[in-house]
UniProtKB/TrEMBL annotation:
Record bears the keyword Nuclease: yes
Alphabetical list of InterPro entries matching this protein: 3'-5'_exonuclease_dom, 5-3_exonucl_a-hlix_arch_N, 5-3_exonuclease, 5-3_exonuclease_C_sf, DNA-dir_DNA_pol_A_CS, DNA-dir_DNA_pol_A_palm_dom, DNA/RNA_pol_sf, DNA_polI_H3TH
Pfam families assigned: 5_3_exonuc, 5_3_exonuc_N, DNA_pol_A, DNA_pol_A_exo1
Domain 3'-5' exonuclease stretches: 316-507
SUBUNIT field: Single-chain monomer with multiple functions.
Nuclease as UniProt keyword: yes
Protein name: DNA polymerase I
Record organism: Endosaccharibacter trunci
Top class in the EC scheme: transferase
Residues in 5'-3' exonuclease domain copies: 1-258
UniProt function note: In addition to polymerase activity, this DNA polymerase exhibits 3'-5' and 5'-3' exonuclease activity.
Length: 918
């Protein structure tokens, strides 16, 4: 007997990364399937034994996770283009008539080891088709390996070359080395060379530790590491040893090789577009009976096929039967890809009820599942699925690691679905909104309707069209099912079509890494932060509101006295009449309506001229905003279930990649004012816990020093100097020692002002100096640091040439108006272009940290939670006993989030309230 075992799970990953992108005519990615199918076809010609099987992993959780809960815990989700291909590889195996074997709770490697050893012990031969290093421990008489990519045998000599030991000692070396990919701990500082030396000298892990405990090893860092991490080394050996006693789902005798059915195989190869493989097998590839997609070519070509989106946006199905829903779920899982959308009775995912959901499995193939529609006498709903039962049927699809779920604004739908079914954890996911945003931030909006019009040439049904507007609007639950079905199912259909079109452009626009490493993993991070929320002191907020109200009343009396009469302070029209018609202040501008402009910029300009009334109005407006936006609104935002406030982070709004928050907006609380500090005092930790604030210090200035050739700034940051004092010394020629605070403040204003393209007039107003003096400061600054001027000129030219600028990490920030004929608008765009790489780079860095922090906290065994992100600051809540440990971990992760030419510095603070921590 010669049994050939193909490591299906291992090969699909290698094929995926080895081959260029390919898609089937319906847009489904197939490069890994093509590689797998090609390899099997080759085996049928060259390497077939008497028996043959393909072994797959059944899931990510196995008995090893019970031994060590961190095993493979940090492995990323498979790329979205690969997820649909898992099911197709199993289809390929069936088309060739080859048995496919997998078993819950065991890895494919354990099944391979069990079958291989069983055959070898019976006097047969087993060839393992894989290059997986973990399987090399099996090599012995009767068991050999074959690299499927290189088509080279792997024997004892190859194992010795790789590990420095014979196959029977491989596990001993692996126990010492560990494995960062699988999160096998090993012994820190011991690599393959040292590990093999130790094993060859002492025989195995037990021999190494006998010698250590007997004092036979000389004192050294290596000896200390071995002693400190003995437990991890022994756990590691248990983790890497393959089981040879796993249950065998199919008896060996049933794995006999048979020639594939050429008709069935030809139909499958034709449906996949693998005509070249069919030709090599001398069988006919039967084309499916559908019109070819535009510009269609064989999937084996390196260019991607264009999906056929000619299917009409109609004929959607309303599913009200459990069996029918189960068929849709099975169809989606078989495809390995589907779009999902939810319909709710509100926009707050933590309070809204799930009214229904929709699925799309192919362009034009979509359904809507109503759950809580009410209907009326004119439009009765008829039977609907019970919500609990429907989600029970849907959950296996949502949790299936082999099916990619595509959403538009995934964070919202995750929150709705996972709240509707506690314990549900959806994945893997993709988000068309973020796929678009990752490559076109600032170029256009990323809502579904706009993306559909832009990329599909289709205008979807609007919410207003099905619910009405104004007083005539009805809740979505009362929309008749035919209209609800057309609207909701179309959303899923459009989302899936957008995915087919936009997903491939991530690679061509060089935005794939940005999306995969930042935007996509951040969905889950932000979802968890929003779900965690933050506690607020309701009593303090009410006291604050009363105090602000009383102060506003006093200010209103004073303002009326300054104006000479009473008027409505909240009326821009009345204020304009007083300032410019009655008080005759100069510099007023009329709007198109004819009313006077009284915006903040105008009032600040009047205040700079020495007028007291505009200054007092600005103070009153600031207090009124704090009262309405925070002191009053936060009380209303407290969730009745959690007793916490849950903000919503907007991921695709800004042109620079920065997050924004709303309902409530927690990113615009004034930092430097007394009132702003008081607002932050109302954000508190729950009993027994504290808040930890971690803030990047001067991150945009550090990025400026990184991207521009400014040795003095780099030196100052490297040496930890006061950067503003150093700037003052460089620009004004004043020694740093004994520098007065006014000079330093001016340098600080220039440092930060330059980043945002401040004008001489703006700097003059900020420092209360004449514009000529401010211009002299700016000129002196650029003369001392010409690299900054060069950088700003370079980014402006880049924006004019390309329409966008790049952050240091490759994010495209599109700049609108860079060629505008209006000088003011063009100037604003040029300032945006200069600042975007810095602001966008800072956003990229903190997003990197945010993605890395949750797994780092889990690995450290901390119960802390990340709650808020406010520009360059992260806020955490932790048990008091964990606070100091958390501070060290957070600083380390944040400071290591990027490697710049200057060090990143993170300042942390701990307190019972946000104000105290900040």
């Amino acid at each position: 007997m010669h049994l050939v075992l193909i490591d299906g799970s291992g090969f699909i990953f290698r094929a995926f990364h080895a081959l260029p992108p390919m898609t089937r005519r319906d847009g489904t990615p197939v490069n890994a399937v093509f590689g797998f199918t090609n390899m099997v076809a080759r085996f049928l010609r060259e390497h077939v034994g008497t028996h043959l099987a393909v072994i797959f992993d059944a899931g990510r959780v196995t008995f090893r996770n019970e031994m060590y809960d961190q095993y493979k815990a940090h492995r990323p989700e498979p790329p979205p283009e690969l997820v649909p291909q898992f099911a197709l590889v199993r289809e390929a195996t069936a088309a060739f008539g080859i048995p496919a074997i997998e078993l819950e709770g065991f890895e494919a490697d354990d099944l391979i080891a069990t079958y291989a050893c069983h055959v070898a012990s019976a006097g047969g031969r087993c060839t393992v088709v894989s290059s997986d290093k973990d399987l090399m421990q099996l090599i012995r008489p009767g068991i050999d390996m074959l690299d499927p990519i290189k088509q080279k045998p792997i024997g004892i000599d190859e194992v010795r070359e790789r590990f420095g030991v014979a196959p029977d000692k491989v596990v001993e070396v692996q126990a010492l080395m560990g494995d960062s990919v699988d999160n096998v701990p090993g012994v820190p500082g011991i690599g393959p060379k040292i590990a093999s030396t130790l094993v060859n000298e002492y025989g195995d892990l037990d021999g190494i530790y006998r010698a250590l405990h007997a004092g036979e090893m000389k004192p050294s860092k290596r000896r200390d590491a071995l002693e400190a991490h003995e437990k991890n080394a022994r756990i590691s050996r248990d983790l890497v040893i393959l089981r040879t006693d796993a249950p065998m789902p199919l008896p060996v005798e049933s794995l006999g090789f048979t020639t594939p059915d050429s008709t069935g195989l030809g139909i499958w190869l034709g449906a996949m577009g693998f005509k070249s493989i069919a030709q090599r097998l001398s069988i006919e590839a039967v084309e499916p009976e559908v019109a070819p997609a535009p510009a269609a070519a064989e999937a084996g070509a390196s260019s991607e096929l264009i999906p056929d989106h000619a299917a009409p946006f109609s004929d959607y199905l309303c599913v009200t039967d459990e069996a029918e829903l189960a068929r849709w779920v099975a169809e989606a899982r078989a495809a390995g890809l589907c779009a999902v959308d939810t319909e709710t009775d509100g926009l707050d995912p933590r309070r809204a009820n799930l009214i229904g959901f929709s699925l799309a499995t192919a362009p034009g193939r979509a359904c809507y599942v109503p759950l809580r529609h009410e209907g009326d006498l004119e439009h009765p709903t008829g039977p609907q699925l019970d919500t609990v039962r429907a989600l029970d049927i849907l959950a296996p699809l949502l949790e299936d690691p082999g099916t990619l779920k595509v959403f538009q604004n995934a964070k919202f739908d995750l929150a709705v679905l996972e709240r509707a079914r506690p314990g549900l954890r959806i994945g893997p996911i993709d988000d068309t909104m973020l796929i678009s945003y990752a490559q076109a931030a600032g170029l256009h909006g990323h809502g579904m309707d706009e993306l559909s019009a832009r990329h599909l040439g289709h205008t979807p049904i609007t919410y207003d069209q099905v619910t009405g507007t104004g007083r005539n609007r009805i809740p979505f639950a009362r929309v008749p099912l035919p209209k609800a079905t057309d609207y909701a199912a179309e959303d899923a259909d459009v989302t899936l079509r957008l995915w087919h079109i936009l997903r491939p452009t991530l690679r061509t626009n060089r935005s794939l890494a940005l999306y995969e490493q930042l935007e996509r993993p951040l969905i889950r991070v932000l979802h968890d932060m929003e779900a965690a929320g933050i506690a607020v002191d309701e009593a303090e907020l009410r006291r604050m509101s009363a105090d602000f109200g009383a102060r506003m009343a006093v200010m209103e009396t004073e303002i009326h006295a300054l104006a000479g009469r009473s008027f409505n302070l909240g009326s821009p029209k009345q204020l304009g009449e007083i300032l410019f018609d009655e008080m005759k202040l100069s510099g007023g501008k009329r709007l198109k309506t004819g009313a006077w402009s009284t915006d903040s910029a105008m009032l600040e300009s009047l205040a700079d001229q020495g007028s007291e009334l505009p200054k007092r109005i600005l103070d009153w407006r600031q207090l009124a905003k704090l009262k309405s936006t925070y002191a009053d609104a936060l009380v209303q935002e407290i969730n009745p279930e959690t007793k916490r406030v849950h903000t919503s982070f907007q991921m695709a709004i800004t042109a620079t990649g920065r997050l924004s928050s709303n309902e409530p907006n927690l990113q615009n609380i004034p930092i430097r004012t007394e009132e702003g500090g008081r607002i932050r005092r109302a954000f508190v930790a729950q009993p027994g816990h504290v808040l930890l604030s971690a803030d990047y210090s001067q991150i945009e200035l550090r990025l400026l020093a990184h991207v521009a050739e400014i040795p003095a700034l780099r030196e100052a940051f490297a040496e930890g100097q006061d950067i503003h004092a150093r700037t003052a010394s460089e620009v004004f020629g004043i020694p740093m020692e004994g520098m007065d605070s006014l000079t330093r403040r001016r340098a600080k204003a220039i440092n930060f002002g330059i980043i945002y393209g401040i004008s001489a007039f703006g700097l003059a107003r900020q420092l209360s100096i004449p514009p000529g003096e401010a211009r002299a400061y700016i000129d002196a600054y650029f003369a001392r640091y010409p690299g900054i001027r060069d950088f700003m000129d370079r980014t402006r030219e880049e924006a004019k040439a390309n329409g966008y600028v790049l952050t240091p990490f490759g994010r495209r920030c599109w700049i609108s108006g860079i060629d505008d004929k209006n000088g003011a608008r063009r100037g604003y765009a040029e300032r945006q272009a200069s600042n975007a790489p810095l602001q966008g780079g800072a956003a990229d860095i903190i997003k990197r940290a945010m993605v890395r922090l949750p797994p780092a906290m889990r690995k450290a065994g901390l119960d802390a939670r990340m709650l808020l992100q406010v520009h360059d600051e992260l806020l955490f809540e932790a048990p008091e006993a964990e606070a100091e440990t958390l501070a060290v971990l957070v600083r380390g992760v944040m400071q290591d989030a990027a490697v710049l030419r200057v060090p990143l510095v993170v300042e942390t603070g701990i307190g019972r309230s946000w104000a105290e921590a900040h």
